[in-house]
Amino acid sequence: MPKLFEIKFPGECKTLPEGFWSAVDVWIKKPHVVNKRLCGVKETESRDVGREAVLSLLEEPDLAQDVLSFMACCRNTPENTHEKETPWVSSVRTFIPKVNNYGTSLHKEVILKDFGRQQVTFVPFEEDSEGKVSLKRGNIYQFQLLHQDCEEWSLQLHVLASDQWFSDGVAYPRLPWLSSDLLPKLVRWATECKSSEFRSTLSLLPVEKYSVMYQTLKEKYKAMVKVWPEVTDPEKFVYEDVAIATYLLVLWEEERVEKGLTEKQSFVDLGCGNGLLVHILANEGHPGKGIDVRRRKIWDMFGPQTLLEEKAITPSESFLFPDTDWLIGNHSDELTPWIPVIAARSSYSCRYFVLPCCFFDFFAKYQRRHCKKSQYKEYIDFITEVSVVSGFNTEEDCLRIPSTKRVCLVGKSRNYQISDEAEAEERRAHYIQSRQKAPGATVQRSGIRSDGSCCHGEGDPDRTPDSSWGVGFQPRDKVEMVRNCAALPRDLVNGVVLQVANVILGMTEEDGGGSSSDWNRGGSLSVNEAAGLMKQETLQLLKKECGGLQTLLKNNHQVFRVEGGQVYIRDWRDRKASRADTKRKPLAPGALKTRACWFYDHHPQRCPLQAELCAFAHGPDELRPSTKPLKKMRHNAFI
């Protein structure tokens, strides 16, 4: 069978042949990482099979012989490779599309791994609701790893009948895509051959249930994107919360089946932020509420069934939830390490879900201890340790959300008996005390009876219900401080911009790479050199902002280009000056100019662009107030 495509591996690749099989497993188990129209697959257990099993599996004698010949075709492989009676390892995977256009028909593949010949063959077939199977002869394909002269390796793609290939872009990808997209990725994965620090996505859930529910909820709540009143990216936050809600709803549905529960689980979302997750869960029938220190504009858009409280949360007896089934921490920042503790102390039956983001310890920012791990992995391990010490059998999973922080931790059951609650509480208190930084500070034990219920202050006459479990915890401020230089006095910003720009424009080529072109772009300054121009009181103001002077200069994108720690005057004639400029759309005819051109007002040679080509106003006659209407808030949009 002629090869369809071949890619050679980099010279002296040390990861083969093991890396080849690692790459193949990614394609088998997680095809959705490259085929975005798939949600995932279900795979059967692998088993060793021989010739007779393959013949019975394929049923059609002529096709079976063709497939056996296809797999047995030697391509520079050692002789006598198949002395075993069962030379292949077989499994079956069922595709789970994101959008099911197949009805009740299931699309599957028989996977035959041949470790002797370093090849894997995929035999697709369809199965209807009555179990009738239809093989897709034209779509049978194979990957083979070849070891050629010396240390040279190559990966080949073979197809049984390429002239009969059928494609729908989902279960049956296009043939050019296999060669131009998938094959290079297999080579890269095989070369890197590195395992992830974390588990595969959705490892605790049935993927098919997740896929169906996610598509349903995405369609149901997509209108929120159009009426999002916050300054954050609506698509990211809406679809991320839809995905998290989907995960929890499927997780809870599985729990009800497992435990024989009839009522839907209750929840409290600690640090609920925009409250969208609370709204979706409540809308889907789960009783619960969200608590956050700061009210959001979007809260007014939810209906009365969405319970949201504006309140600072301090880990204490006042914030226990003995009647709640699940506590949620979705990017809960400084509350993240406390959530397993609060769940454990609320009641023996209380469970939790936490999605860590920012790195916080109990009383301060988390400090790294292991340089061999990524900071994120180290922090996940820390929260896992907190969970285990708090008494939970802790499970880790990875969500499918548009975020780099996707690993969640779930505590569904305890690692001790309810009769051992007092000893478990002793361990919790001792562990929190060990993390305490304040000298002489003490960590209160929670009032837990031996039956696992909370005393709420009754157990210790010297402790009030409001007593804190530790000195030093600092909840976030109710008023969010804007620290991106946007709140600085306008006169201060304008003065800094003018001062730095004048110095750069005054530089010659000898001073710092000044331009000798007809329009003076000056030279360049390092950010540190620019800081040296500032007065001490100005620097003190800038130090309070995130990024300081560099952030201020980057914010003034019209004037400066900051790259690699160097500050340049931006030349708007040069569209290749930065990657951001290449994405900027050309000025539309008749566009309103709502900001003055800095170069027209301050550059000795004025703006290098003609007025009709410049996006900024050349003089007051061109300046127009913005007519962009304010986004209307539809109060019934989410009901």
Query: Residue share in helices?
Result: 25-40%
Per DSSP E runs of 2 or more residues, the count of β-strands stands at 19
DSSP strand (E) fraction? 15-25%
Instruction: State the helix count.
Output: 17
The stretches of 5 or more residues where confidence is low (pLDDT under 50) are 438-442, 455-466, 512-516, 578-583, 630-639
The secondary-structure class comes to: alpha+beta
| Biggest sheet details | 9 strands, antiparallel
Oligomer: single chain
- If you compute it from the alpha carbons, what radius of gyration comes out, rounded to the nearest whole angstrom? 31 Å
Average the pLDDT over all residues and give the rounded result. 84
N→C terminal distance: 60 Å
Overall 3D form: globular
Descriptive tags:
639 residues, alpha+beta, 9-stranded antiparallel beta sheet, 7-stranded mixed beta sheet, cytoplasm, tRNA (uracil-O(2)-)-methyltransferase, zinc ion binding
Please, could you describe this protein's structure?
Strands 1, 2, 3, 4, 5, 6, 7, 8 and 9 form a nine-stranded antiparallel β-sheet that branches. The protein has a seven-stranded mixed β-sheet with strand order 12-11-10-13-14-16-15, with helices on both faces. It has a three-stranded antiparallel β-sheet with strand order 17-19-18. Helix 5 crosses helix 6. By secondary structure, the protein is α+β, with helices and mostly antiparallel strands. The relative contact order is 0.07. It has 17 helices and 19 strands.
